[in-house]
Amino acid sequence: MEATADLLKEGQKATIAGLKDGDFSQKLAEMGCVPGTEIVRLYQSSGGNTIAFRIDTYLLGLRKEEANQIEVTILELDPA
Amino acid sequence: MSFPSSFALVGNPNCGKSTLFNRLTGLTQKTSNLPGTTVEAMHGEIKVGQKTIHLLDLPGIYSLYTKSEDEGLVVKHLIRKDENKPEAIIFVMDASNLRRNLLLFSQVAELQIPCACVLTMTDTAVRRGIDIDLLALQAALGVPCIVFNPRKEKNIGCVVSLFSATAKPNIIGAPTQLPQRLQEYQQGAKIQGLSEETLRRYISIEEVIKKCTTKRPVGLKSLTLKIDRLTTHKWGGYFIFAAIMMVLFQGVFSLAKLPMDLIEMAFQTISSTIKSLLPDGLVSNFIVQGLIGGMEGVVVFVPQIFILFFLIGLLEDSGYMVRASFITDRIMRKLGLNGRSIIPLVGGFACAIPSIMATRSIKSKRERLATMIVVPLMSCSARLPVYVLLVSVAIPFAQFWGPFHAQTFVITSAYMAGIVVAVILAFIFRLFQGKQSSSEFILELPAYQIPRIQTVLHQAWLKCLSFLSEAGKVIIVISMILWFLSNFGPSEAMKRAETEAHILSQLDPSHGEDIKTTLRLEASYAGHLGKWIEPAIEPLGYDWKTGIALITSFAAREVFVGTMATLFQSSEDNTQGIIEKMQAVKNPKTGKPLYGLPYALSLIVFYAFALQCMSTMAVMKRETGSWTWPIALFLIYGIIAYIGAYMVYHIAN
């Protein structure tokens, strides 16, 4: 199922499908958000302004609208 | 053996680069300002056989395409063309994040500078189920690679042996004319197809990774995630942050007291030794009061600044401060700041100078400027002695206002007032700037680690040095000028003062010296200066003596205390003496104590807001590139301070 990273539920695993063309795409790509990479949504700060993801092997903190730039393919529909 | 004589260490943030640098150089590194730039890089030297090798530690970066102040420095060094260009590179690669580290490597490789590779964090990689085939990696990259975990391994020899083994790296994927593109990018040109270039690099990197790593499935539960559950909890996170900050400040005040007392004692010993060695007169007076007094005013703050930056450094190095940025970004953004602003803002409570420099890590120019603007409103350690002197004069120690200890309450309120005004100003600044899209947060959350004490100590010391060199110059010069102004005056007025003092001291021999110094001071240039601004500050409840102290403390706030001490010439050189003398002064019009509660509160408010620090202004000029902001802020904060002090004085009366 296609979605963007900010829409993932806590603990849900997905694969990065691509990056929307925008201000953050270059920076996100440099930080390792490239197609094919595994992404897991972890915790968020209060209000959901910033969200932590596990990208491949490391943790990345993103704002909601930055996470919105990452297109993902959801692997597990229901996070355990 | 022949090998390059200068090396640069290049790598991602948090890859162990600085630890490696420290291990290689011991404690020989020094920061230096590069000609033409304002940003610092770490230099160090190491002896290999007969040869001295020059090492350069550059800030950690993810990509050479960067425009931020601190990261841009790396690119400047690597593409420079003069003799200071490093001859070779030691590339530090975090094995647990191989893909992302290889992106930077693929860019650096295109510069075709001889290179060798140190693979760090291999233990973490193994725990994450990644096994690396070193020979295959070496073949793919075209440069010698070794495994070395700088925090654990003892024998640095294998890294040293790399110095003689550097090679030109293989270009991974198709070349892109990177040096030229970088130059254009640095000059502000928009480079076409930048994200495509990055994606293409990743495709080539994927092939390298396939060839040299194998992956085993492992569980994901890590200690870092467990700690993050607490530190980023939706309300627990803020609670922990507040608690840590409280412990931090308590720690600073209690730990710094002893060294500060020792420094004061040491300076007093030096002063009295010099006094006894030199004949009484102008020279001895100048050295003791002008020169040594000035130096003491600087050095006495080192313990507080050092301890606060050391503790903040521990938090930063452990990985906690990034989480603090993560949870505060929401609030900071509403104020036009960034989660990353939290580190300079907390640092502002120690000293604004290194904190303004620390704003370099904020990518957006607007957010960086907004952070610099509000940093001076955090009550720095130089304000504390002013607050303490004033509350001690105006409020008895045992007094309580309701449940609050009155003195503590006033000082805490002064700190809070600074924060409140900072919030308001940041908000106003944001309204003026309008909405801009350049803001970004994208921040790696590194795994928690035990802080490296030696590194943190060293960095705290570097921050103290920046305070000592920036503030030191100004404060010492101003102290000397002040000494001159208060010891000389228009000859006629001085003569009159001498005669008058002579007569009065015969009437009251026990206070002869005090009367003499007071009268002389009133007749001096400083006295004239104070009288000159008295009309302007009278509405705030200040007299001409306070006026002099206000003028002199425009050099640096704490000079206020020293100036008051000089003005009240307490024959014993201690603060208690000044306090008692100040308490004894009566307002000639009302008969009430002149330096009472309204006076103290008004002056505390003034000091909380006014930008009375020449060194801060100088650093701000350097970081923004013009005098516009420092001067604008000087005026804006001056007006806020004046109005605030006026209001407080009249309400308290």
What would you say this structure looks like, in words?
The complex is a heterodimer of chains A (80) and B (653). Chain A has 80 residues and is mostly beta strands. Chain A has a single domain (2-74), classed as Ferrous iron transport protein A (FeoA) (SH3 type barrels, Roll). Helices cover 12% and strands 42% of the residues of chain A. Chain A has helices at residues 25-30, 64-67, and strands at 2-4, 13-19, 38-44, 50-55, 58-63, 70-74. A 6-stranded antiparallel β-sheet of chain A has the order 1-6-2-3-4-5. In chain A, strand 4 (50-55) and strand 5 (58-63) form a beta hairpin. The longest helix of chain A is centred in the middle third of the chain and has 6 residues, at 25-30. In chain A, 54% of the residues are buried. The model of chain A has no long low-confidence stretch (mean pLDDT 87). Chain B has 653 residues and is an alpha/beta fold. Among the domains of chain B are: 6-215, Rossmann fold (3-Layer(aba) Sandwich); 236-433, no CATH class. Chain B has helices at residues 17-25, 69-79, 98-110, 122-127, 134-141, 157-162, 178-186, 194-212, 223-231, 236-277, 282-299, 302-318, 320-334, 342-347, 352-358, 365-374, 383-394, 406-433, 453-487, 491-507, 512-523, 525-537, 544-552, 559-568, 575-584, 597-609, 614-624, 628-652, and strands spanning 6-11, 30-33, 40-48, 51-57, 88-94, 115-120, 130-132, 145-147, 213-215, 400-401, 404-405, 443-445. Chain B has a 7-stranded mixed β-sheet with strand order 2-3-4-1-5-6-8, sandwiched between helices. In chain B, strand 2 (30-33) and strand 3 (40-48) form a beta hairpin. The N and C termini of chain B lie far apart (81 Å). At the A-B interface, helix 1, strand 3, strand 4 and strand 5 of A face helix 3, helix 8, helix 9, helix 13 and strand 12 of B. Strand 5 of chain A pairs antiparallel with strand 12 of chain B.
